[in-house]
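Appendix B. Raw example, untouched.
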Amino acid sequence: MIRHLHGEKFDIRNRLSDDPLCQLDRFAMPYFGCRSWGVHMNGFVRKADGIHMWIAKRALDKPTYPGMLDNMVAGGQPTGLGFRENMIKECAEEAGIPANLAENVVAIGAVSYLYETDEGLKPDVMVNFDLELPEDFVPHCADGEVAQFDLVPIAEVAEIVRTGFDFKFNCALVVIDFLIRHGYLTADNEPSYCELVTSLHRSLEP
């Protein structure tokens, strides 16, 4: 049934406060309906005309969601690493962000969801970070998992999320959370504002 393995082990636990029961290969998690944890980062730049967000386009040879838009940096949470430690590691591996910049990541919360796939259920939690970057920094594809990075005005990012499915679905959730926190989506301009806020932070109870 499980035709491919990733080689990266995830901890099996219902709550963050629980000790891991065991470890399981990342690609096997949905077959057992186990909760996966991951880290995602919104990289952004403040310009004279407002906030611009760095958007990654996934490489065409990635085994999952090739060619789709992604957060600047994201990754699964392997066993043995802290969330911040993992985020800084992923910054270097995926976007060539040096440690002196990556150390400025700010933990801003989490987004949770339940997603049904052909393999099974994914009750996932994404622990999220923001990183404000200087205008003169340009990321580069360090590990081959990203085809390109584009710096996009936040209004254009919002329109991409609103009108289509170019973003990998869970990355769109992280972007929506950013738009809410930075005042681009409000109760005055988005009729589904309350539903969005509630749905992004579902109960983590098993």
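End of appendix B.
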